[in-house]
Design a protein that fits this description.
This protein is α/β, with parallel strands linked by helices. It folds into two domains: 168 residues, Alpha-Beta Complex (Quinone Oxidoreductase, Chain A, domain 1), CATH 3.90.180.10; 139 residues, NAD(P)-binding Rossmann-like Domain (Rossmann fold, 3-Layer(aba) Sandwich), CATH 3.40.50.720. Helix content is 28%, strand content 29%. α3 crosses α4 and α3 crosses α9. The longest helix is centred in the middle third of the chain and has 15 residues. It is elongated, with a radius of gyration of 20 Å.
């Protein structure tokens, strides 16, 4: 192994991103050095580069991006047990330090690199049949909608559910809702390609939110039932108002997409009368990732359709540009060191 490696580094103070040559880190006690095989490119990475998101706990001005990471164990630090060199693993997207959640690739160096450090407890073994390109984005791109559905939204089988925004998170949301038995699943997106994708991923209907007959088409899709749960994966204020209006008694609006715009409730009296709820959601728990890997191992889930393209690590800036401009309407772009 050479003494240096390539890494996609963000200078937070200057807002400058570049792939640079940096020293290969050495694992300390309780740490593991991972040879990165694949790393996901997430919209939050784009937002970090643009300055829309800022690290809260980063020490210094520079960080290696990448919170969706999979690879093999290369070197064990002192005292590490339960894993061995060569093991195939993915990394949890963050960890708790002194009672505070720190995010990989945001608050400390992530996996847009040839090698990455990880606390041993953040390793999740993956089966041989799960490709690294699919494993890397299970933390976040899959685990976030999974937790939104199973925990925050508490969706039950046969509940009518709406999904607004069928991008990287929303597409997996449709797939996972199908897996747990929601019915019907109505996807809502202004892009024809996204609506087609939703149907391919298991939606029972896919609607254009700007269609003048939207309300009638929704009633037709649900057999006249109001929605029990509506998920906003887009993070767009008008989406939230439209989604809220589709809910019935005890309906839940789950806010997954992030926005700093105000949330408007047009008819507060009706929300109270129907005892509806607005629930915020962010991220997932470590067990969610473990559960999803087990579902893949058991043949219940697979994510081959989610890999929209791969880029060499050296072309990370190009991958960011492709995602920013939604070239090819990607679900997940993946970096390969």
């Amino acid at each position: 192994m050479t003494a240096t490696m390539l890494a996609g580094r963000l200078d937070v103070a200057k807002g400058a991103f570049a792939v640079e040559e940096v020293p290969v880190p050495a694992p300390g006690p309780g740490e593991v050095l991972i040879k990165v095989e694949a790393a996901g490119v997430c919209l939050s990475d784009v937002h970090l580069i643009e300055g829309m998101l800022k690290p809260l706990y980063l020490k210094g001005d520079k960080v290696t991006l990448g919170h969706e990471v999979a690879g093999t164990v290369h070197t064990l630090g002192e005292g590490v047990t339960g894993t061995a060199v060569g093991d195939r693993v993915l990394l949890q997207a963050g960890e708790t330090r002194d009672g505070v959640v720190h995010t990989r690739g945001v608050d400390y160096d992530g996996g847009w690199a040839e090698y990455a450090l990880a606390t041993a407890t953040t390793l999740v073994p993956i089966p041989d049949e799960l490709p690294f390109e699919q494993a890397c984005f299970i933390p976040d791109a899959v685990s976030t909608p999974w937790a939104a559905i199973t925990a925050t939204g508490a969706v039950r089988p046969a509940e009518a559910v709406g999904v607004w925004g069928v991008g990287g998170l929303g597409a997996h949301g449709v797939q996972l809702l199908r897996a747990i038995g929601a019915f019907p699943i109505v996807a809502v997106d202004p892009l024809p390609a996204a609506r087609e994708r939703a149907l391919a991923f298991g939606a029972d209907a896919a609607l254009d939110p700007a269609d003048p007959g939207f309300a009638g088409l929704l009633r037709e899709a649900t057999g006249g039932r109001p929605l029990s749960v509506a998920f906003d994966f887009a993070g767009v204020a008008p989406v939230r108002e439209q989604a809220m209006a589709t809910l019935g008694e005890h309906g839940r609006l789950v806010l997954v997409g992030l926005t700093n715009k105000p949330l408007t409730v047009t008819n507060g009296t009706l929300v109270s009368y129907l005892r509806q709820q607005i629930r915020g959601h962010y991220g997932s728990e470590g067990q969610d990732v473990v559960d999803l890997v087990n579902l893949v191992r058991g043949g219940r889930l697979e994510f081959s359709r989610s890999v929209s393209g791969t880029f060499p690590l050296a072309e990370a800036a190009r991958a960011v540009e492709a995602l920013e401009h939604k070239e090819g309407d990607p679900i997940r772009l993946v970096l390969k060191p």
